[in-house]
Amino acid sequence: MKKMTLKVALLAAMMATSGFAVAMDEDSYRAEHKAATEALNKAKKVGGEWRDSRWKKSTAVKVDGKKMSYLHAAEAYAAKGDYKNAMKYAGIAKFEGEMGYQQAMDQKNAGPRH
Amino acid sequence: MTMKKIVLMALAACLALGTTGVYASQADDINALRHYFKKKFPTVPFKEFANGSYALSADKRINWESMRDFPPFEDHVAKGEALWNKKFKNGNSFATCLGNDVTKVRNRFPHWNAKDKKVETLEGNIVACQKANGEKPFGLKKGNIAYLSAYIASQANGQKVNVVVPDDKDAQAAYEAGKQFFYAKRGQLNLSCADCHVYSAGMYARGNLLSPVMGHTTHFPVWRGKWAKKKGDGFGTLHRRYGGCNKQVRAKPFKAQGKEYSNMEFFHASMSNGLTIDAPDYRE
Q: In whole angstroms, what is the distance from residue B148 CA to residue B154 CA?
């Protein structure tokens, strides 16, 4: 009996924490997705978006045989509950947004150097 | 130096360039590139730059010349001619918008529209004409728009490109924006148009011989072997090519006939001033 309670308690605890972990993963993914979208919008405003961040014709990542952009891959993984991969690809999209914005700023006064 | 002398010298410089443009910065840009490419390719005559990479490699040229003997785009030009001659439902036609003399259309573009404060391109005006006449507009990169553009351009063959940037602050700003676009590094590969088509012209990038920017626009639309392998029939407009070159550096392409590419065309086509129109053409 005692053993049994312990098992149940353990199981309950495991379920709780794993559920909790999933919720956490989902929350951090949502935050990362939002940050990526914001970074990409900022890059877009200055004409600095890159090809594979979220362009609908991008073929950068293959998820279940379908090719897509990083942000779309993040969404596809999130839809399957794979938040680890969702986080990873949202992170790449965010990074590209930040870099694209920075690049456009650096190139604002670009001109010939010949 | 007297003022009169300065004016005369400036005039002489303009005449030497064969441009009637009034924007000094445009003339300077053209001059600088001509000097740059003359130094880089001392044996290539100026008029040859219209032929892109085929002016630079004897091997590639043989292939290109044999393609031109039996051009894969003759039907496309014929389709374009039919489109030019076809009446809209309201009885108008493209000539209503673009002028009756088809030989005088291609070379008026790109130009500055002072009223709407924007660069007008040939393809942009073709579509604007359709909209104004209640016709369904063509797509912007291939198909009918390329056929019609090819027919119109072919009727201007032999004329010299002469893009004029007028004495208008907004026109000059559009030109400068196009120039900045051309020289700005972009995409994950961090490369500018100039990195490939100015500084690396004549070198190979993944098996492709890079053409100099001077002469880039004289022969569009083009029939490309690479495009023929994709959906469509190998034919495409200048803005289709812009999109392809943006994608190559892993930048998101801009909309065909949008402000970015139209402004760039204003600058880009200027760099072909003085070269002869010879369209359409074959490219790898």
A: 10
Q: Which value, in Å, is the radius of gyration of the alpha carbons in chain B?
A: 19
In which residue ranges of chain A is pLDDT below 50? Answer: 1
Q: Assess whether B245 carries a catalytic annotation.
A: yes
- pLDDT at residue B258 greater than cutoff 90: yes
Chain A residues whose CB is inside 8 A of the B252 CB are 49-51, 53, 55
Q: Where are the domains of chain B?
A: 3-72+166-283, 74-154
As assigned by CATH, the class of the B74-154 domain is mainly alpha
Model confidence at B232, in pLDDT bands (50, 70, 90)? confident
Q: pLDDT of B102-149, one tens digit each?
A: 999 999 999 999 999 999 999 999 999 999 999 999 999 999 999 999
Residue A70 lies in a domain: yes
Contacts of A111 in chain B (CB under 8 A): 179-180, 183
CA–chain centroid gap for B56, Å, is 20
Specify the CATH superfamily of domain B3-72+166-283: Cytochrome c-like domain (1.10.760.10)
Domains B3-72+166-283 and B74-154 share a fold: yes
Whole-number Å distance between alpha carbons of B21 and B160: 14
* Chain A nearest C-alpha distance from B188 (Å): 6
Q: What are the strands, taking DSSP E only, across chain B?
A: 111-113, 118-120, 204-205, 208-209, 222-224, 235-236, 281-283
User: What band does B64 get if pLDDT is binned at 50, 70 and 90?
Assistant: very high
Is B253's pLDDT higher than 50? yes
Counting one residue from chain A and one from chain B, the pairs whose CB atoms sit within 8 A come to 61
Backbone angles phi, psi at B223, to 5 degrees: -100, 120
Cα distance between residue B14 and residue B166, in whole Å: 14
Residue B90 token pair: 């309201």
Query: What is the number of alpha carbons within 13 Å of residue A80 lying toward its C-beta?
Result: 12
